[in-house]
Structures are given as structure tokens and as C-alpha cells.
Design brief:
Helix content: 40-55%
Number of strands: 13
Shape: globular
Strand order of the largest sheet: 10-9-8-11-12-13
Number of helices: 16
Radius of gyration: 25 Å
Order of helices and strands: HHEHHEHHEEHHEEHEEHEEHHHEHEHEH
Length: 388
Amino acid sequence: MVANAPEPEVLERLIGFGRDLRRRGLPVGTGRIVTFCRAAGTLGLVERDDVYWAGRSSLISRPEDVEAFDEAFAAWFGTGFRLQLPMPGSPPDVDATGEDERTLEGDGLDDRVLAREWHELEEDTLTDGEASIRIVASAAELLREKSFGDLTEEERVRVTHLIRKLALQLPMQHTRRYRAANSGPRFDVRRTLRRSLRTQGEPFHRAWRERGRRTRPLVLILDISGSMAPYSRALMQFAFAAMAAGRRVEVFCFGTRLTRVTRTLRTKDPDRALREIGHLVEDWEGGTRIGASLKELVDGWSQSASIRGSVAVICSDGLERGEPDLLRDQMAKLRRLVHKIVWVNPLKGSPHYEPLARGMAAALPSIDEFLPGHNLESLEELARALAD
């Protein structure tokens, strides 16, 4: 990259680099690209190594992605340069009509929003006289923070696309069996002795063993009652993204009764799947019987491998119309079946929320993680919690 590159080209290059990582199979969403541009923007005039570490710390988080990141970085930024990022008052001039095919061609709605609606940079003067650059949140990031209940119809469509493109990583678990590894907690005597036969009995090449890993089952239990109407469709889109991440996923809906919708969601057409679920689920936007629905789940699926040892995610506002004692008992039974229970409550997005409703209070002792679920940002937080 040329040192005196025009300002728009600089920002386009940063965004394009993040998109290229996604094309290479890395889980790089729009939020990470925004963070990368912010990190690079605060550095002002930077060297190649500064951009490298800004990207590596914000765009990837898994050791196995480092090699692909290095290859992409070398292809995009070459060697030995200094980069002047755009200053305040000179925002990137990305064509709002979408004419720049080199930057926008073939990518999703979230990156187009990021490129077209990037806000003007601001300059803050520090006490030591130096200036730092900060990038004001883009329209895409503002959309991430807006509650699902406050979205316009156009914004709802855009958020739907963003949820479907969430890079979900299913939870993992260690198996009882050990496997060969380059390093590990156990010394592999047998394999080391076999290798020593090639070196006249000297154990120059030592072998190790580690416990294997496999995907842990994920169970999504979604409240589609009337009080969850502003959020239930967005949560269903999250379920569709989870189904695309792996096969060991079960999805249930409940209002006054439990309905399994796993097979319906296992499709490449989410709009058609949602229409079919609308016909399949008779109590959509009806009452809420959380305890009775969980009893159906525990009684009917307790022997299933997809439930035992799983991570169970219950998405509900906790406004129970049934008996709270039933909910408390069923939550305790479910807790003994699964590895972890994550409760996602859209009401928790309010800074003044307290779990005082009788249903929520009854369920709370059995919950391992209590998260909000009112906007796109909170669903990204849920995706990170599942990966951890």
C-alpha cells in the first residue's frame, strides 16, 4: 500500500481486508471490522506492524486462524509502508449509489451499510497536545444497539440479514478418549517406543496424548408468546444461524405448549421456514406457560442424546402465567440433565430491569448465565457465550 494513499482508499482497504478474511472462512462479522477500523484510526500515522497487530487483536480470536490471517495480510498490505488514516473533516467519499464495484460487489447488506454510511471522523485534543482520532459509530453499529421493538420495517429487514450472517461457533466438550497430539498432558509411551525403533532405540521423537474434542449439543427453547412478539422473530433468525453452524442443534418453540421446529429450520430458505413454523405453531403470540412447556421437554426428551449434556438456551421474558413452583421444579430437573443453562431475557436490556416477576424469580436459581436479548449486539454477546 502506498504511503500517501487518498483517504477513501485507506478506509476501503481496511474494510476490504476484513471482508477478504470472511471469504477465506474466518468468522469476521461487521462488528469486528468496525472495531478494527477504530483501532487503526486511533493510531493515525502508523507502520505496517501497527496495522497488523490492530487487525490481529480485533479481527481474529482463535489460534488456528492466525495462518490464514497472515496470508491475507501479506496479500493486502505487502511489506514496508506507512499509512496515513483520514483526518476529521475529510470523511471517506464512498459512492452512496453503490457504483464502486471493487469495494461492494457481491457482499452482504451489512458491509454496504458500513462502507456507505461511515460517519465523519472527529478530533480530540489530549492534555499533552497530541491529537487522537476516533471513528464515530457507523449506522451499522447504531443498528446493532437499537432494540428489536423499536425497529422500523426497513431496519427490521436489514437486522434480519445481519442475524442470519452471525458467525456462530457451537460449544465444544472434551471426550473421554485420548488422541495423538504434538503436545499434551499425557506422555504416549507406546508411540514413543515405536518411533525409537527408527533411531536405534533412542527416544529422540517423543509422543503425547490429549483428550479429544467434539461439538456439544445446543438446545434453543424460544418463547413465542404475545409478550415476546417484538423479539421472537429475531430470535428465530438466530436459531436459523445456529442450525447453519452445525448438526447437533435442537430448536423448540413454546407459548402454552411445546413444539419442536428443528426439521423445519433445517433449510436454506429461512423465509419459507418461518412461514411453515407459523402454520405449525398454533399458539404463536398467545399465552405463556413456561413451566408446563419445560415439563413437556424434560418428560419427552430427557433420554435424548441431543438434550443430555447440552447447552440449553431459554429465550423468554419470564412472564409466567402458570404456577411458579412448577417452573422452579422443571428448571431444577433440566439443570441436572444439561451441561449449562443460559437464559436470554429481552427485558434485561433495560438498565433498570430487575428479575422480580414470579416466573423469572423461580427460574433464576437454576440459571448459569443471564443475558439480554433485545438487540443485535446482545445476540452477538450470546454467540460469544456459546463459543466460550
